[in-house]
Every structure is written in C-alpha cells, then in structure tokens.
Amino acid sequence: MKNNKKYLMTILLLFTLSLIGITVIRPVQGNPGPDLVNRGTTWDGFYPNKAVPWGTNISLFCDVLNQGDAASGAFSVSFYASLDTTITGGDYEIVKVPVSSIAAGVWANVYWFGPFPVSIPNDTYYVGWIIDVDFEVAEDNEGNNIAYETVSQLSIVIEAELYNRGGPNGGFQYSGYTPTEVMPSVTLFSIWCDIINVGLKPSGPFNVSFVASYNPTISGADYEFARVTVPSINNGSYADVSWTGIFPFIPFSSFFVGWVIDVNDDVPEGSEYDDSGRAEYAPLVVSNKSDLVDRGSSYSGMSSPNVYPLTAFTVWADIENIGLKSSESCNISFYASTDTNITTLDTYLGSDTLSVLTNGSFGYVEWSGTFPNITLGTYYIGWLIDVKDDVDEGNENNNKAYISSILTVGPASKSGIPGYDPLVIIGVISIASVIYILNKRKKK
C-alpha cells in the first residue's frame, strides 16, 4: 500500500513539473519581441550585374521576414557594395531604404531603383544588406540581420550608357510620330526621339530600330519598320534621332510605337537593360483603305491664264487612288483662291463627280462654265478632293491641289507701264504732240 502511495505521489509530482515547464519555460524558448531576418536567397537580388557610376540605373531587392512575436516598428535597410562576403557598415553604401513596421510572422519586400552612386570605385563587388542598420528595433537576436547576394557579383565599369531621354516610358516631349494612321507602302511617315549617353565614355556608332508593338513593352521582337545609324554620342550629351520614309508592310492593326537603342549591341554599356523608348500612345493605326490624291501638275490645267468675269472658263485634273482598296464615288470641287491654301471658304467655281477608282488607277475630272463675277485681280485655281468626305481614306490630309501658274481675272497685263495699254499711251503722246505744235504755230 505504501509503495502504491509513493508511486502515485511520484506521478503527481512529475505531472506538476510538466505544467510548470509549459507555463514558464515555453515563453522563454520563443521570441517574445520582433526578430528581423532575410527571408531567403530566392527573394533577393539585383540587376544589372554591371554598372557605370551615376549612369546606370540599378535595381536592388530583398524580402525581410519578422519571425518574432511582435511588430517590428519602422526601420531601415542599407544596401552595400563589398569586396568580400563579410558585409559591414564600413563597406560602400549604395542606398538606405526606409521600411514600415512589419507585423509578427509577416514579410515585406524592400526595393530600390536608381542611378548607381558616383562615389564607389571601379571594381567587382558583392552586393549585401544590413537589416535595421540603425538599430531602431529591439531584437533578441541582432546577429541575423546581414545577408548578401550569392549568385552573382556587381562590376563597376567606365563605359557608355545609352538611355531614352526621359526614361523608357517617358520623355514624351522629346519624341513623337506623324501621321497616326498609315497605309503600308503608301503613307509617308515620320518618327523622332532623343537618346542620351549618361555614361563615362563616348558611345561609338550604333543602330536604333523603330518598331510597332502590340503592347507597351518595346523589344527587338516587335515589327521593325525603320533602322537608323547614329554615329556616336559623347558622354553627357544626347542626339536627335529621326526617320522619314514610306511606311512598310506590317499587319493591319493598332500599335504602340517605340524604338530599341543599340539594337545590335555594338556599344559596351554598363547595362543592356532599359535600352528602349516609347512614344506617347496615340495609337498608330495601320489600315487597309483607299487614298485619293492629285495625280500631279502634268495632268491638270485651265483653259486660259486670263479670264473676264461672266465668261467661259474650264479647269481639269487627274485624281489617283494610291491606297490599298477601291474608293467610292465622290465630289471634286474647284475654287478660285487668293493664296495656295485651298478651302471651302474660297470662291466656288463648280464641281465634277469622280467615279469609283480601283487602287492604282486614276480618273479625269473637269469643270466648264461661266466664271463668277468676282473682284478683278490674280487668283490660284485649285480643287478639293472628296470634299463631302464620302470616301474613308487612310490619309485625309492630302486632298488639296492647285495650279501653280496664276490666273488673272480682268484685263491682261501688258509690257510697259503697269496697268496701262501701250497703244493708249502712244495715242495720248501723239495728241499731246499735235496740241504742242499747234500752240507753237499760234504764237508765231
């Protein structure tokens, strides 16, 4: 009986001690406060792995995990360039990034993007970081706050660095294109941009590829429609790069327009990232339409360079469809204008109907009638094609034309004193001479 009692007392004592261990020892084994650590190599890194001081834009990132039992409060992470894997505050600081408080059991992404500092010498470095570099967080373990990138090292070099002026998705004030609707093999197209060398050496010659892209991410895999060679850009300078030409064949669609800088990788650069630029989205529409234009001065004319109001007059022209599909029938209106900018506000003469034109064909139009009673003087005779906008054209801005020679409305100008007929002048002089002779005879 005594042995059983003793056995029961032993069991009771052991059970009591285990409860004490659960109640007292367990909290001591955990992290009652915050504890900040690097989340792991899967979530940290940098790019590019080569940089020009104060030229190359570099990205640095890591994840910081709070494996403690309390929120951390705000703190900072400093990224460093180090000659070895022992990261300390004595290494070259690249940047210090502030971080908001991280709750217990939660992680936060720490990211920075910007130009690499000019104060760091040329060499090859490990990139590391110190979490809570200013000891703003009271942690039980301050020895697990340092990490470094184990996969690659960063080379600091003296090279050129080419960027789109204003950034890959900015600088719209330095770039553009016209028109915003084109027909392949038909439309004259212009595009321009500025490229800046923020590196430490001249670039040497390189090529810029102008492309049309289905999305705003511009790359060499997009549809190239032009390529321009740039001789060289000195460090700290920029160049205006432009191209004008007939837009080539690419699919009919809507596109973003951009350019790839140094598309053939001819220039040794600190970074080959961000070697692109994009114009402000319009978009560019590549269309399958007709396009009516005047055929040329050899195919237009007028019945006379001189006409009186309310007398017969004729003007004619050839209209050509340079587009990709047939045009509808439309109206061609003729005008007399005091300048070469022919508009519907000028003096209307008359019109003719242009028949349907297949692409690549032309048609003859003319107006014959009584010239209107307008102020005497000199005029340009011109015409507006598809004046009522009956035809859906790829380019609505090339529908004007005029005859370069001037039409005189009123008496034709003769040689001699401007505005006077030589015969009249001779007659007046003759009469004056006779009167003079008669007067002399009377005096005798």
From TrEMBL:
Q: Which UniProt keyword terms apply here?
A: Membrane, Transmembrane, Transmembrane helix
Domain CARDB as annotated: residue spans:
50-147, 304-400
Q: Where are the transmembrane segments?
A: 419-438
Q: Which Pfam families match?
A: CARDB
InterPro entries, alphabetized: CARDB (IPR011635), Ig-like_fold (IPR013783)
Q: What protein does this entry describe?
A: CARDB domain-containing protein
What is the species listed in this Swiss-Prot or TrEMBL entry?
A: marine sediment metagenome
- Organism phylogeny: unclassified sequences, metagenomes, ecological metagenomes
